[in-house]
Design a protein that fits this description.
The protein is mainly alpha-helical and 123 residues long. Helix content is 60%, strand content 0%. The chain is flat.
Length: 123
């Protein structure tokens, strides 16, 4: 079992500092007085433009998954034990997803006719 150490204040404690029980009471009364947060639907925060073609979407998804695989591989190198196993699993899942996206991208390219111009790439 890991020992959890608590941080201590450096220097003198100000006279107006609240004790933990005062903080709890203040946070409860303060939260009752606050306006409730407005929840914003995820679609309003992030969206993909409607005019972006499938090939561009698949290319960006592949790049994002490749970045995720690299980040998780670097993170796995810094972890030990069960945390490392989890990081390696995340890396493997992102690599598998990248393979699926690349396969879908290849199928889109094969289905396109050679006479048609390549789709316009928009970012």
């Amino acid at each position: 079992m890991k020992k959890i150490t608590r941080l201590t204040l450096v220097g003198p404690v100000p006279a107006d500092a609240q004790t933990p029980s005062q903080k709890t009471h203040a946070s409860v009364t303060g939260s009752n007085q606050r306006k409730p947060r407005r929840t914003v639907p995820l679609k309003q925060m992030f969206s993909v433009r409607e005019d972006v073609d499938t090939m561009t979407l698949l290319t960006h998804a592949s790049d994002l998954l490749e970045s995720l695989a690299l980040i998780s591989a670097n993170f796995a190198d810094e972890c030990d034990g069960s945390q490392r196993h989890i990081a390696v699993a995340i890396k493997q899942l992102s690599a598998l997803a990248e393979i699926v996206v690349c396969r879908a991208r290849d199928q889109v390219v094969q289905q396109g006719s050679p006479a048609s111009p390549p789709p316009e790439v928009r970012h």
